[in-house]
Recover the amino acids of this structure.
């Protein structure tokens, strides 16, 4: 079963459950882990939407590669190298 | 981003292609490439957010607590629901059920409009509370000095991010309206529904953007 | 156009048949006309400030006007000529022909791209007519977002709109190359020009949106007085520089990768040899495309960026030289023992190799942290990037135009005149820009409308070279236009070149090929006896 209303309903239920989970976790003080947990859940939700609603599981390898390239660029290049500057200002200050 | 060249011809596929499958694959790949662009478009904003939150963690926490958590959470549920109905749209198109397709497209549009309405209420409230960046911005803070300016940066990013997202949603609603119109005319059949599928990809992507905006804007304040 | 055979040029003569065309070949010609016009707009600005710099205290223009002139030159040349030139003119014309397709995957989006480009150019040039912009093409904040009293918002929006043209063009190329190759045209049989455009398209799609967002934020900051990049309001101006160079450094490779693709076509054809190390050149293309994204911080060595980031970006900048060098070695090795024919396109190709090498090697000086502190923002930098952009991209663009002109127009231009123009451009270019290496090293800063008298001799050389260069650019404009109507018929394959584009007639029919081509040969098979 790769698609169909039943599967979509299950994915939808999982998404709502994750929304509830992230809402509840945010009410507990975990320090820095609040952000980690919130983002982990966001990634999980995105994974569900992409894999099932957008059918990336069944799509062309090309489409998957394209989509991944966007995230690689964003996370490992734009975000990482820019933050490298900002963290570096503390590490090598003086 | 519908199947290009398809609109006014009665042929099964546009003349630059060899066969319908090639056209379908091209349209899908085209939308995925477009979404990659969108990832980086929002990515610049997310990077700005990350940088300023790294520089001003306390002010960002405090500012985030001023957002409307209840409405934001409800809105997340609304948008997730619209993604669910969008997936059902594609399924209805695939199985050739015209009436169901039109109804589901209308429902998805309504959910999108509902999201915008709730967002509008939030914005109105925030403007009323002087949280709109600019000369009227006021942020009484427990922290002395720079905190007001730093909190204003949070709200700059908040309004730009939610604003650009809302603009994408408006485009999505218009797109679905066009699809609903053509679906009612019976243009989409079980062997040709690429525009519905491709519009669905876009809609889901707009949902994904919100999936990230929600924790970053509403939840970073920690327990309220 | 006296011949009876139907082709894309005689398929309609009305204005409408051009302005509403969905034929990639006609859209390529629309771009050709537009970028040529814009090139001469940007060039005129350069002529003006070169004349101003003829004397140390030139009184030709006011300082404010001088600022607007170099800004206009930079904006037009970068965003409206160098970035679009090779992909939209040659890429649009050739990609479907080279892969044996009838058109691009999305012809209407292709036409939309051209209109977006025109709209963007109109906005940016309109701002110039109203009074111009003085921020430099880099729009550094907070000057651009707070202090400048010029038309920043309109210009920035023009570039924003033109950015979507780039994105949609890249999108179209990626999908077309993936989905519409002729039977038998496996990935590793693709011409290197197609590979180059493919890699460039990814850079369009991945880099342009970040610039678009950065410029949007500058516009918002300026109009609504927000503080996103304004230190007085808690913002960080360096963040803008990060965003700007995240696009604008890859943009250098957006300019030079398609140029390298052109060179990889010209060198084998006029050496009558298979390209040396085809696979390595493909890999190097992708190496450059990816590594090109990792080096933007070398523009910010003296900006207050952290020393840690400077270290990382310096190292990565050295790494990106490796794939570029691989290509130069491969072209040179292709020449070795080749039967070299010195036609006009080949002269441009040989010029490219030399000038690109000088530009690339001086780039390594600038990638060195300590040296950069000395020469940053001097004419050394100006000379370096003009060797890459003019010596590299423009030379290759002109070489490509001359190489494919018989295919585009069906006519041949006077080759002797073409060779003279190529030599003139080469000499004029070096005379203009080589003195700038020296005067920059001696400490003359960029973007000043006056300078100490001891630098005058170098500036006189530069201005003299610029006038030769201008003449060199006007010549092809003249004889190519002449040949379009009056030139002798070129025949389908005047150079005896490999590649699918030469297997159809010149000019090609509307749908490119009479019968769907099937590919049964390896690329650049010049030694297999097929091409004489």
């Amino acid at each position: 079963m790769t698609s169909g209303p039943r599967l979509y309903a299950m994915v939808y239920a999982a998404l709502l459950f994750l929304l509830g989970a992230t809402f509840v976790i945010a009410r507990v003080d975990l320090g820095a882990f609040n952000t980690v947990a919130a983002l982990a859940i966001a990634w999980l939700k995105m994974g569900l939407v992409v894999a099932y609603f957008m059918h990336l599981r069944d799509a062309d390898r090309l489409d998957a590669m394209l989509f991944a390239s966007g995230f690689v660029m964003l996370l490992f290049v734009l975000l990482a190298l820019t933050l490298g500057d900002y963290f570096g200002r503390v590490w090598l200050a003086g | 981003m519908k199947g290009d060249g398809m609109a006014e011809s009665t042929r099964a596929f546009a003349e630059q292609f060899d066969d319908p499958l090639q056209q379908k694959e091209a349209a899908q790949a085209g939308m995925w490439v477009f979404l990659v662009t969108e990832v980086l478009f929002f990515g610049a904003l997310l990077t700005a957010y990350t940088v300023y939150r790294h520089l001003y963690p306390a002010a960002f926490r405090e500012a985030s607590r001023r957002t409307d958590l209840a409405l934001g959470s409800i809105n997340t549920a609304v948008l997730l629901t619209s993604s669910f109905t969008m997936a059902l749209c594609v399924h209805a198109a695939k199985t050739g059920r015209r009436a169901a397709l039109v109804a589901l497209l209308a429902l998805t549009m309504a959910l999108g409009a509902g999201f915008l309405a709730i967002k509008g209420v939030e914005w109105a409230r925030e403007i009323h509370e002087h949280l709109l960046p600019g000369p009227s911005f006021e942020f009484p803070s427990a922290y002395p000095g720079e905190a007001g300016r730093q909190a204003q940066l949070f709200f700059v990013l908040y309004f730009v991010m939610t604003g650009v997202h809302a603009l994408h949603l408006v485009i999505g609603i218009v797109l679905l309206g066009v699809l609903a119109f053509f679906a009612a005319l019976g243009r989409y059949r079980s062997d040709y529904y690429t525009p519905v599928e491709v519009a669905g990809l876009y809609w889901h992507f707009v949902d994904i953007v919100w999936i990230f905006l929600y924790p970053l804007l509403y939840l970073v304040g920690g327990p309220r | 156009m006296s011949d009876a055979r139907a082709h894309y040029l005689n398929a309609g003569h009305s204005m409408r048949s051009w302005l509403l065309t969905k034929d990639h070949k006609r859209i390529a010609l629309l771009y050709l006309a537009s970028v040529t016009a814009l090139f001469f707009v940007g060039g005129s600005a350069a002529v003006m400030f070169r004349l101003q710099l003829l004397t140390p205290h030139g009184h030709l223009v006011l300082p404010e006007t001088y600022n607007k002139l170099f800004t206009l030159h930079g904006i037009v040349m970068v965003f409206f000529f160098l970035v679009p030139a090779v992909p939209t003119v040659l890429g649009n014309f050739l990609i479907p022909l080279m892969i044996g397709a009838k058109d691009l995957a999305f012809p209407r989006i292709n036409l939309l791209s051209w209109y977006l480009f025109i709209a963007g150019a109109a906005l940016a040039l309109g701002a110039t007519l109203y009074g111009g912009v003085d921020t430099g093409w880099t729009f550094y904040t907070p000057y651009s977002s707070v202090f400048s009293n010029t038309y920043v918002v309109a210009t920035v929006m023009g570039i924003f709109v033109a950015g979507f043209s780039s994105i949609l063009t890249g999108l179209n190329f990626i999908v077309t190359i993936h989905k519409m190759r002729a039977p038998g045209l496996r990935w590793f049989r693709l011409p290197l020009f197609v590979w180059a455009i493919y890699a460039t398209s990814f850079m369009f799609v991945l880099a342009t949106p970040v610039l678009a967002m950065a410029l949007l934020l500058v516009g918002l900051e300026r109009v609504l007085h927000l503080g996103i990049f304004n230190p007085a309001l808690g913002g960080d101006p360096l963040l803008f520089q990060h965003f700007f160079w995240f696009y604008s450094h890859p943009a250098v490779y957006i300019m030079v990768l398609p140029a390298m693709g052109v060179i990889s076509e010209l060198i084998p054809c006029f050496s009558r040899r298979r390209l040396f190390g085809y696979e390595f050149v493909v890999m190097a293309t992708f190496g450059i495309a990816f590594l090109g994204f990792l080096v933007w911080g070398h523009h910010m060595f003296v900006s207050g960026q952290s020393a840690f980031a400077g270290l990382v970006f310096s190292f990565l900048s050295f790494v990106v030289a490796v794939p570029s060098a691989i290509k130069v070695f491969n072209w040179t090795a292709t020449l070795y023992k080749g039967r070299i024919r010195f036609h006009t396109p080949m002269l441009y190709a040989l010029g490219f190799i030399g000038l690109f090498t000088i530009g690339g090697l001086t780039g390594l000086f600038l990638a060195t942290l300590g040296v950069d502190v000395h020469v940053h923002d001097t004419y050394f930098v100006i000379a370096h990037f003009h060797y890459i952009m003019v010596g590299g991209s423009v030379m290759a663009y002109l070489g490509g135009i001359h190489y494919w002109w018989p295919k585009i127009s069906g006519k041949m231009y006077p080759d002797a005149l073409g060779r003279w123009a190529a030599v003139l451009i080469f000499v004029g270019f070096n005379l203009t820009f080589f003195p700038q290496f020296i005067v920059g090293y001696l400490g003359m800063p960029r973007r000043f409308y006056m300078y100490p008298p001891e630098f005058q001799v170098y500036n006189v050389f530069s201005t003299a070279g610029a006038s030769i260069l201008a003449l060199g650019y006007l010549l092809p404009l003249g004889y190519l236009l002449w040949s379009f109507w009056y030139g002798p018929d070129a025949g389908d394959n005047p150079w005896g070149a490999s590649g699918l584009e030469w297997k159809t007639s010149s000019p090609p029919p509307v749908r490119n090929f009479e019968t769907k081509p099937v590919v049964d040969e390896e690329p650049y098979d010049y030694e297999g006896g097929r091409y004489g």
